[in-house]
Amino acid sequence: MTGPTTAQPSPARAAGLSTRFTELVGIEYPIVQTGMGWVSGPSLTSATSNAGGLGILASATMTFVELETAIAKTKTLTDKPFGVNMRADATDAPERIDLLIREGVKVASFALAPKPELIAKLKDNGIVVIPSIGAAKHAVKVASWGADAVIVQGGEGGGHTGPVATTLLLPSVLDALSAKGIDMPVVAAGGFFDGRGLAAALAYGAQGVAMGTRFLLTSDSAVPDSVKQEYLGRGLGDTVVSVKVDGMPHRVLRTPLVEALESGSPVRALVAAARNANEFKQMTGMRWTTMLKDGRTMKKSGERSWQQVIMAGNTPMLLKAGLVEGDTRAGVLASGQVVGMIEDLPSCDELIQSIMAQAHERLKTLGSLG
What we know:
Layout: H1 20-25, E1 31-33, H2 42-50, E2 54-58, H3 64-77, E3 82-86, H4 93-103, E4 107-110, H5 116-124, E5 128-133, H6 136-145, E6 150-153, E7 159-160, H7 166-179, E8 186-189, H8 195-204, E9 208-211, H9 213-216, H10 225-232, E10 239-242, E11 250-253, H11 256-263, H12 266-284, H13 288-302, H14 306-311, H15 314-323, H16 348-369
Parallel strand pairs: 1-2, 1-9, 2-3, 3-4, 4-5, 5-6, 6-8, 8-9
Antiparallel strand pairs: 7-11, 10-11
């Protein structure tokens, strides 16, 4: 007869790491999962928040009703703080902001900074406002408008991105804010995937890191397994910044479709974009008048040509084909260069614990040098 079994103790969790950013949003670890269209749904967002980081729902590819449902679902899966990423130039942005206020969402993040009056409304109702920026002058501007923090994405990052590497963009932003006497938490994005990166970001003066591709490649991500394997098989040179997807610099995996777009006729690309825009309209129930209003707003705020505005209709459908439907030949797969450093699919909790354990070890080693 065998004796009674003894329960094995659960592995020790990494110690928390308090920064001004973690205090601002009420989380344990200074790690953010960015809002990725078609990827950052309730499952991934709640898993990140439950693991001690900040999960962010991506709402740009959701209708208003879908966003309502997603927020409600996320609240059933976690009681920890989470955020919602929105398009500040969407015609229904005020209604979405009212929804966040009603539901008590902790963080509102934006790819394009919202108008000062929208920032004020969010802050007056206790919501932390965090725009993503790609230039030092933009950080200073949104700070003057009342934003609480910024996410700074360098050129290594996936999706829409800029030309300057994180190692240069991050200190330029920190220096610009300091020169203006602005004490705002800065979160670094673009090229981060482990504890060494977090330690490096903190050494620069950032208050945390944000990651997209690394969270996409977790077991909690709803992206099809076949697509995840496509990512895992890629190297550091297997992404490209293309303007042929939607008219703006967009870092994606090299695929047959992307190669065809890069070498194809601009006229044919424009026709395909218009076709995809129509499909997106039908899927979301948007009216052409609404899409045209959004287009005019995009053109005015982002200084896009009308061709770029029309091509923006490409993005949601091409990303959906790749990231939701799993068609890696007909879809587009947004990806940071960091894809070449990722080899596994941990849970969000396993990922964050490994990052924090390594970060604490690196910080301890660095401390001993001084």
